[in-house]
Each structure stands twice: as structure tokens, then as C-alpha cells.
């Protein structure tokens, strides 16, 4: 064989060996993929063709003390977009689809695009971006009309990857037409931070598409109400289109919150507060000659024996349904707007006002427990001079020498001025001594003022007792501003009053003078309270001295009707005032209703059968009209109503207070009809039966 033939044969052998090696390697690899690793790869392939979709749970109901639904759920059509399929479209097709969806749901294409961006990605907008699973369709519009939903469902070729589904959203049955927005609160989508925190805690009740409570009991009891989501596994094709269900884990509905609110009483309170504000706006202020602004108001009814909240109303208010399906920027701006009266602010728990003469019963307790006697008499003159200033009695009235009971009955300011001045002289005549004792301040703190009541609603304001320590702290926080202002030459923009005030504040704004003490004694000056604080303190006068932490919730009930938790009333303390003094104050406040400053609003009221104790108040506010108060109580309830810039206490709110008492006890004219009482007095049911046609719940069956 020639050398050339041998070389050719050798090359052929090499090629054959290489070919055999390649086939052997391929065979081994195929054997590994199909036999050894087959199960693993099959699982991975199957996993790629199955996706998890979160099934949101129905949020728990909120009901009143009689089982009437205050917050329920309804179905809403939601339009969602599958981003996986959207990403496989050409740019032109994608833009056209987004435009078509925006037109269908009546929004801007830019808003649709913003809702499709994952939170944390470049260009994401907080509160708008998507926080959920990348495989889950993203909702771009909620509460759309049925016609829009049917159009999407019936024209899939025009809306590829767009889904129309029914989901559960909040609804407000409004028994007796009530609003109750500030108690119920509202919901909004979970934030990115909340979602991340829930993931760290392995909290499976939250997911990227969850909504959470932001105010009221919706926020306070959110973890009970939200339930647990379920998961639906769906098979998809290579384009991400859903082929069918693979498996389903049912969601768990949230628990029901039973509250102490009585919807029938609430309706009376809301109507009366709104009516009194509307009426006062038609009346002329005798001081200014202008109509009363009556810019806001609040009313609250408590159970005097337990501190439970029976009704709570605030004006201005808002429609709680405005949050359902998302709120517009203009509507949100209105809720925070001062021009609109800041409707989002609950005046009962967050509004802070000078208490005026409703403060005097607590000053009476402070005086009686610190050296004064029940038979003490002092002049009720038309004025009381402190330094170079005369502090006036209301309308400069004078009643001669009177005791505490008469001073409360006629609401004599100069009587209490003398007490405040006396304590200032005895314990703290040095204005710079911030550690000086003040018995009246101590008594106010004893009744819980200057601190939060502990109500089970978020965002409660603490009020303020403007004592020596507060004045020093305030001075230190503001002195740089006022000292700098006083050192500059006065300009046309700075009034004489502001310039003079700045100079005086810079020099001695920390001094607690006799004028501060006498103002404190009648609930004027810088001391402010919330209507709820005042109601809680009057509750202590009613029940013998117990301070309760007001509560809205009574029980948590599972979807199956099992009582998971009973929320008992909570005592926060007892006032250190002897019973004989509480009884004395109680008797004096009864006379306020019979013959005093509240009597003209209770003519014909059966006060011998339903004994009402009351105190009126008109708090003067610099640069504004007076704030009108009436605080009242019986052995069962406490009722407080106030109107900012509404005028005198009984003049602005007296008729509303009376109407509420008539509803509570079923009073018609001069007759008490217990069967007509708004609250029949039932116990929390052990099980929640079905709703009746009028929105109420049948009482539970009595076990033999």
C-alpha cells in the first residue's frame, strides 16, 4: 500500500473515532436527561407552565352593638393586565393595547403605565406602583361598570392579556342613614415598606395586592379584619395565556368586629350636630355683629358605667365610600384642606379646644380637696382685677356672695378667678418658679386631662394642660424666633401688636403670672382638651370617680360565629376625690339643668324621672368667635356636644343635647316611654345570626 493510501486510511479512522465519540457523548447526555434527571426536569418544565395567583380574602364585617352592619362587602368589576403577555407584544402593539384599556376605563394611558411598574423599579410611583407577584395580573381599574367588563370579556382579540374579574370591596350599608366615617376609618393599598416588613416576619396575611386599614377601627383591628389570602394555580401556555385552573387553596375571610356603637343613637347624634351647626350659621354674634362661623363641631355619647362609646360624630365629615376603588388627587386634597374644614380630622379624638366653663366642676373638686369647704362663699362680682387688668364676668353679671353650687349653677367666672388667684399667691407667686405647686393643675391631671384617654382608635390627641412647665418649654422652643423678630426694625408687614408681643415674649415669655392662673381656673388661656377627654372626665363624676379607657370594640367573632375575643372595658384609674365632694358637685350640676344656665333648653323635660346633670361653657378664643360647649350626664350615659365658633354653650348646642337625651330614654314630650328608647340594652351575642331585612340581627337563642 502506498504511503498516500495509508495516510488517507488513518484520517478516516480518526474521523470515525471522533464521530463515535460525539454520538456516545450525545447518547450519554440524552440518557442522563431522560432517565437519571428526567423527573427533575419534568418538574421544572411543569413549574414553568403553572403560575400562582393570589385570591384575596373577604375582609371581615364591622357591626354595631345590635348586629347592624356598619361596614360590609360587595362585588366590584376589576380590570387587570397580564404583564407577562404584554411584554411579548411588539412596542406598537403594546402602546395600542394600553391606549385601548385606558379609553375603556376612562383614564389616561400614562396612569395605566404607572400602575404596571413594579415598586422599586426605575420610574415607580409610590402608592401607584405594583407591589404584587410578577406573575399576577395587575389591576389597573376598579369599580368599572358591567358594560366595560363585558366588553373586555367578549372581545378578547381586542384586549389580549386583559382580564375582567369580580372582586370584593368595602361597602357601607348606613343603617338609619349614619355616616360614622371617623370611627370606621378607611383602607388603602399596602405600601412597599409594609409588604417588605410582612415578608421579613413571614406574615402571610399580606401580599402585594392587599389593602390595609389607615384610620379608625379599620386600622386598629386590621389584623383581625383582613383574613388570609388563598392561592389559585393556573396552567399557562408559552405566551403566558391562562389555559385553565390547576389547583386552588381557598382564602379565609376576616373576622367580624362587634362594636359598642348603636346606629340608632348615632343617627340622632349626627343629625343633631349637623342641624345645630347649620342653625348657628344663620344667627348673629352679639359681640361681632356677624353671623357665627360655626366652622366645626363634635358630639360623643359614652356609657358612664363602662366607658364604651355609644355614638361619636364630627363635623365636617366625608363619605367613607370615597376611598373604595382608589381616591382621586383632588378629593384627597380636599380631605386635608383647611378651606374645606379638614374633613379627615376627627374633632372628637383629635380636635383640641379650650373647655371654657365646662372646666369648673374639676376646679371645684380641686378647691374642695385643698382647703375650701362646701359652705365657703366668695363674691361673684362683675369683674376681678389682677394687676392692671380686670377679668370680666360673662356679660358683667354679678350675684353677690355665693357658694360653689351657685357658682356652677350661674357659671360665675369671678368666683373661680378668686380661687385661682388665691392658690397662685399661696404656692407660686414667684412667676419664674416652674416647680411651684398648683392644686388646680393637679386636679385637672387627676381627671385625666393633658394625656390621651387610651381609646382604641389611632391618632388620638393628648390635649394640653398649660401649667408652669409647659410655659417654660414653649418659651424655650419659640424664644429664638420672637427675640430675632423683636430685634429687627418694625416693618409695615408687622403690626404693633405682633411687634410688642414679640418683645414681651422674648423678655419674659416663660413667666407664669397671676393672669395665667385665673385663666386656667375657668378653662381659658392655653389649656385645651378633646371632647372625648371631657366626656371621660364627666363620666367619672357620674360613676363615682372611675376613669375608663373609652372603647369602641366589644368582641371579635370568627366567620363561623365563634367569639374569639371579648374586649372588656378597661379602668385607667380612680380620681382621688372624696365621695361627699363628688355628690356635692353632682347636686350642683343637677341644678344647672333645673334652674341654671341649661334650664331654658329643658323646659317640659321630665327631669324628675330622667335626672340630667349638665354644665355649659363658652370658651373665648383670640381672633375668633366663642366655642360653645354642653357637657351632661345621667346615671347611665354621658353626652357632650361642642361647636367651634358657635357662640354660647346652651345657645349653640342645648337643643341638640336635649334631643339626644330624648332618644336615649324614649322621651316623647313630657312622657318617658322605655320601649321607645334607642338602645334596648342587649348583651353581645355569642354567635352572629343572619341579617334581617332592616339590617339588624336576631338575638341569639337562649340555651335551656
UniProtKB/TrEMBL annotation:
InterPro entries: Beta-lactam/transpept, Beta-lactam/transpept-like, PBP_dimer, PBP_dimer_sf, PCN-bd_Tpept, Penicillin-binding_protein_2
Membrane topology: Single-pass membrane protein
Main location: membrane
Domain Penicillin-binding protein dimerisation, residue spans: 55-244
Transmembrane segments: 12-32
Domain Penicillin-binding protein transpeptidase, residue spans: 297-655
Coiled-coil region(s): none
Sorted UniProt keywords: Cell inner membrane, Cell membrane, Cell shape, Cell wall biogenesis/degradation, Hydrolase, Membrane, Peptidoglycan synthesis, Protease, Transmembrane, Transmembrane helix
Lineage: superkingdom: Bacteria
Localization (cell): Cell membrane; Membrane
Family: Belongs to the transpeptidase family.
NCBIfam families, alphabetized: pbp2_mrdA
Protein's recorded name: Penicillin-binding protein 2
Gene giving rise to this polypeptide: mrdA
Amino acid at each position: 500500500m502506498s504511503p498516500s493510501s495509508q495516510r488517507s486510511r488513518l484520517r478516516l479512522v480518526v474521523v470515525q473515532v471522533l464521530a463515535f465519540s460525539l454520538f456516545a457523548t450525545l447518547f450519554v447526555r440524552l440518557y442522563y436527561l431522560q432517565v437519571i434527571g428526567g423527573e427533575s426536569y419534568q418538574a421544572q418544565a411543569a413549574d414553568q407552565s403553572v403560575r400562582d395567583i393570589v385570591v384575596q380574602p373577604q375582609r371581615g364585617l364591622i357591626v354595631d352593638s345590635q348586629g347592624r352592619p356598619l361596614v360590609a362587602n360587595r362585588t366590584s368589576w376589576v380590570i387587570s393586565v397580564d404583564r407577562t403577555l404584554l411584554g411579548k407584544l411588539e412596542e406598537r402593539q403594546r402602546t395600542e393595547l394600553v391606549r385601548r384599556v385606558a379609553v375603556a376605563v376612562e383614564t389616561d394611558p400614562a396612569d395605566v403605565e404607572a400602575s404596571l411598574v413594579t415598586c422599586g423599579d426605575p420610574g415607580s410611583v409610590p402608592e401607584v406602583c405594583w407591589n404584587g407577584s410578577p406573575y399576577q395580573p395587575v389591576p389597573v381599574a376598579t369599580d368599572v361598570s358591567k358594560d366595560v367588563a363585558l366588553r373586555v370579556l367578549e372581545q378578547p382579540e381586542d384586549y389580549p392579556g386583559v382580564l375582567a374579574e369580580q372582586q370584593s370591596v368595602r361597602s357601607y350599608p348606613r343603617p338609619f342613614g349614619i355616616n360614622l366615617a371617623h370611627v370606621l376609618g378607611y383602607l388603602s393599598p399596602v405600601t412597599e415598606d409594609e409588604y417588605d416588613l410582612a415578608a421579613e416576619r413571614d406574615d402571610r396575611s399580606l401580599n402585594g395586592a392587599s389593602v390595609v386599614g389607615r384610620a379608625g377601627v379599620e386600622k386598629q383591628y386590621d389584623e383581625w379584619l383582613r383574613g388570609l389570602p388563598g392561592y389559585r394555580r393556573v396552567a399557562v401556555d408559552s405566551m403566558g395565556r391562562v389555559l385553565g385552573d390547576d389547583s386552588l387553596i381557598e382564602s379565609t375571610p376576616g373576622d367580624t368586629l362587634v362594636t359598642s356603637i348603636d346606629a340608632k343613637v348615632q343617627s340622632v347624634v349626627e343629625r343633631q350636630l349637623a342641624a345645630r351647626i347649620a342653625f348657628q350659621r344663620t344667627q348673629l354674634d352679639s359681640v361681632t355683629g356677624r353671623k357665627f362661623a360655626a366652622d366645626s363641631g363634635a358630639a360623643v355619647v359614652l356609657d358612664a358605667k363602662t366607658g364604651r362609646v355609644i355614638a361619636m360624630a364630627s363635623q365636617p365629615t366625608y363619605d367613607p365610600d370615597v376611598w373604595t376603588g382608589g381616591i382621586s388627587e383632588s378629593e384627597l386634597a380636599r380631605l386635608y384642606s383647611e378651606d374645606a374644614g379638614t374633613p379627615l380630622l376627627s374633632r372628637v379624638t383629635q380636635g383640641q379646644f379650650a373647655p371654657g366653663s365646662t372646666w369648673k366642676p374639676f376646679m371645684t373638686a380641686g378647691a374642695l380637696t385643698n382647703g375650701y369647704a362646701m359652705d365657703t362663699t366668695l363674691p361673684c362680682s362683675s369683674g376681678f382685677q389682677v394687676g392692671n387688668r380686670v377679668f370680666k364676668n360673662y356679660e358683667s353679671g354679678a350675684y353677690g356672695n355665693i357658694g360653689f353650687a351657685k357658682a356652677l349653677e350661674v357659671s360665675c367666672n369671678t368666683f373661680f378667678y378668686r380661687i385661682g388667684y388665691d392658690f397662685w399667691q399661696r404656692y407660686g407667686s414667684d412667676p419664674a418658679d416652674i416647680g411651684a405647686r398648683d392644686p388646680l393643675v393637679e386636679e385637672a391631671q387627676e381627671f385625666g386631662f393633658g394625656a390621651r384617654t387610651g381609646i382604641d382608635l389611632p391618632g388620638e390627641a393628648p390635649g394640653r394642660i398649660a401649667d408652669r412647665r409647659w410655659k417654660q418649654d414653649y418659651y424655650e422652643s419659640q424664644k429664638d424666633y420672637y427675640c430675632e423678630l423683636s430685634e429687627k426694625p418694625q416693618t409695615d408687614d408687622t403690626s404693633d401688636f405682633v411687634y410688642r408681643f414679640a418683645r414681651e415674649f422674648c423678655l419674659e415669655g416663660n413667666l407664669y403670672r397671676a393672669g395665667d392662673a385665673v385663666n386656667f381656673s375657668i378653662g381659658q388661656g392655653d389649656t385645651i382638651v378633646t371632647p372625648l377627654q371631657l366626656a371621660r372626665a364627666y363620666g367619672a363624676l357620674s360613676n363615682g370617680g372611675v376613669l375608663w379607657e373609652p372603647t369602641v370594640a366589644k368582641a371579635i367573632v370568627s366567620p363561623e360565629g365563634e367569639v374569639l375575643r371579648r374586649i372588656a372595658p378597661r379602668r385607667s384609674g380612680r380620681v382621688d376625690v372624696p365621695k361627699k365632694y363628688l355628690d356635692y358637685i353632682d347636686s350642683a350640676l343637677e341644678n344647672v339643668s333645673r334652674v341654671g344656665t341649661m334650664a331654658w333648653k329643658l323646659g317640659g323635660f321630665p327631669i324628675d324621672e330622667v335626672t340630667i346633670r349638665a354644665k355649659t361653657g363658652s370658651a373665648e378664643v383670640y381672633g375668633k368667635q366663642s366655642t360653645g360647649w354642653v357637657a351632661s350626664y345621667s346615671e347611665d350615659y354621658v353626652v357632650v356636644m361642642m361647636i367651634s365658633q358657635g357662640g354660647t354653650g346652651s345657645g349653640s348646642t342645648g337643643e341638640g343635647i336635649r334631643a339626644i337625651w330624648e332618644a336615649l330614654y324614649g322621651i316623647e314630650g313630657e312622657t318617658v316611654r322605655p320601649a321607645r328608647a334607642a338602645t334596648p340594652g342587649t348583651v353581645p351575642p355569642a354567635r352572629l345570626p343572619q341579617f334581617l331585612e332592616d339590617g339588624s340581627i336576631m338575638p341569639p337563642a337562649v340555651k335551656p
